[in-house]
Design brief:
Organism: Paractinoplanes rishiriensis
Structural class: alpha/beta
Strand content: 15-25%
Protein name: Formyl transferase N-terminal domain-containing protein
Helix content: 25-40%
Distance between the termini: 56 Å
Strand order of the largest sheet: 2-1-3-4-5-6
């Protein structure tokens, strides 16, 4: 009996290792591409060649920053992305917005990939409590691990039944852009202490300078002593 075939786009750390092992256990894993985040790379050339020359059932994008072009999505039976945010926050910067606006719950969304990111049918949503001590980086890190659990569940169902139905959830807004994140995390000299504290919690990440103070044409990035 033919095993369904798949391609996996994933990250370079241990979560990517786990995703590769599980996909290889359940499917004929035809290609793996791994990426740092962020990355300027696109999908590998061999992916386009593969989907045009062979029948590929699934593309799984797990913790991958790469946008898969429409020309490839149209050649695959079911392309699925595992988005590290709930349906309330499509696009980028989900943890920042959730913390800034005082959300009490966060989550992971598995959805069909379409040409526009984070607009396809939602297949699974997993949610969990946001802790009072969470920062942008800690919330994202916990979400990445929850994403692996959702990934396991979705792939197991596909391997068992060959299909998966929409969950009934709907995206709650248009996908957020890099510009919208920058605007959220840019402070002015007249902002209140409360807004500054919110922006620090929502934007603090040892790998990226945020939030930023805009003053007289200059931009000053926040740096916590623990991040230096």
């Amino acid at each position: 009996m033919r095993r369904s075939s798949c391609v996996l786009l994933t990250c370079e750390d241990g979560l990517g290792d786990a995703a590769i092992a599980f996909a290889g256990q359940l499917f004929d894993l035809r290609l793996v591409a791994r990426y740092p985040d962020p990355t300027a790379k696109g999908v590998p050339d061999e992916l386009g060649e593969l989907v045009r020359s062979e029948k590929i059932d699934y593309i799984f994008s797990f913790l991958s920053p790469v946008i898969v072009p429409k020309s490839i999505l149209g050649c695959v039976r079911l392309p699925i992305n595992f988005h590290t945010a709930p349906p309330r926050w499509p696009g980028i910067g989900g943890p920042c917005f959730a913390l800034y606006y005082g959300d009490t719950r966060y989550g992971v969304t598995a959805h069909v990939m379409e040409q526009r990111v984070d607009t396809g049918d939602i297949l699974r949503v997993d949610s969990f409590d946001i802790l009072d001590t969470d920062t942008q980086s800690s919330l994202l890190e916990r979400t990445r691990y929850r994403a692996l659990s959702v990934y396991y569940d979705v792939l197991a169902e596909l391997a068992k039944t060959g299909t998966i139905s929409p969950s009934g959830h709907r995206w709650e807004r248009e996908p957020l852009s890099r510009k919208s994140v920058d605007e959220l995390l840019t402070l002015s000299i007249t902002d209140s202490a409360e807004k500054v504290a919110l922006s620090i919690r929502a934007g603090r990440n040892p790998h990226f300078p945020a939030p930023v103070l805009s003053w007289h044409g200059y931009r000053f990035a926040y740096l916590d002593a623990d991040d230096s």
